[in-house]
């Protein structure tokens, strides 16, 4: 039998049992849609995070206290208090020509109070140049200055959401006073909203480094250094210079004894990209289990179909059909079921991904990026076709091996 004739026969057979064909495809549709959704959302999240980092901190290198442990994370990230970053490190880095700005940070969490309203928030004690380094713009007011740091001024800059939660929409926060850590602060600025995101400052309070470090925390070390490099210099070169400067400042001669970790923005992006890719593949693998379930369902239905069509098989063999003809027909039916189910799953997954994008960008003000990778579509089609072949071969062989005389006698 020509493959074209086998295809027509298989199509006619599937069309004859529409409801059974639709129910058989459901497992494949669900599995393919799940894989498409997970891979698309994984790519979208990766692009979103990368965009957040690049817009928030261009040409930045980060310094964390503590030696790298557990796959490259610094000790301080593990909840260990490390006191190795000091003012002398900042001064030494500021003397390096390839570095334009250095901003040390100290953080904390407090309840911030205005009138009869209060809210738990994170505050960041930092330097005045952080506003320029991280592209922070103001909806009203202005940022604190180097003079404010030197004078230990109790001034604060509020994130947009924090300001709205405390003052509402009808009160101008600038000029008002708030209180946290038993200190009264004067609000001098409100940041423009950035929207939800891992690097959004909308719910943060920013205060001068001198006040946060000395008066609130009572410490002489920093929890982090953010360093902005001159774009004219190569990032790898500046990172090498920074490591040399910090080793000299800490009197370290053995590189294995480093008590700090220097990470460039490119390294951070690569690390996050790798983590997101691995996580996406892991979730897609879990979602693919439903494809196995769907494939088993197809095999079961095809076996039932073989039994129901025993007399048809016997009649076809009696008029000259070979085992190969019967095998081809049932294999084509199985592959058609999975391929059509795969195409429907791709379309369904695309609709769900589009709906998620619409909801996040419209109702939650998240700058979500719509990603629909071609690799996910090709993978879905390949897997669905392979599933049809893998789970259809056994029923097809069972049909092909039936004895024509016994088949014709089958009741």
Give a structural overview.
The protein is α+β, with helices and mostly antiparallel strands. The chain folds into two domains: 3-53 and 275-409, no CATH class; 83-258, no CATH class. It is built from 14 helices and twelve strands. The protein has helices at residues 3-16, 18-56, 87-94, 130-133, 146-150, 160-167, 209-217, 235-249, 265-287, 289-308, 310-318, 323-363, 374-400, 404-409, and strands at 60-65, 68-69, 73-74, 99-114, 117-126, 138-141, 155-158, 177-180, 183-191, 204-208, 224-229, 260-264. Strands 1, 4, 5, 6, 7, 8, 9, 10, 11 and 12 form a ten-stranded mixed sheet that branches. Strands 2-3 form a two-stranded antiparallel ribbon. Helix 2 (18-56) packs antiparallel against helix 10 (289-308). It is elongated.
* DSSP, total strands: 12
Proportion of helical residues: 55-70%
| Morphology call | elongated
Overall structural class, as computed from helix and strand content, comes to alpha+beta
* Uncertain stretches: none
Q: Report the C-alpha radius of gyration, rounded.
A: 32 Å
Could you report the average pLDDT, rounded to the nearest whole number? 82
Number of self-contained structural domains: 2
Give the helix tally: 14
First-to-last CA distance: 27 Å
User: How large a portion of the residues is in β-strands, by DSSP E?
Assistant: 15-25%
Describe the sheet with the most strands. Answer: 10 strands, mixed
Order of helices and strands: HHEEEHEEHEHEHEEEHEHEHHHHHH
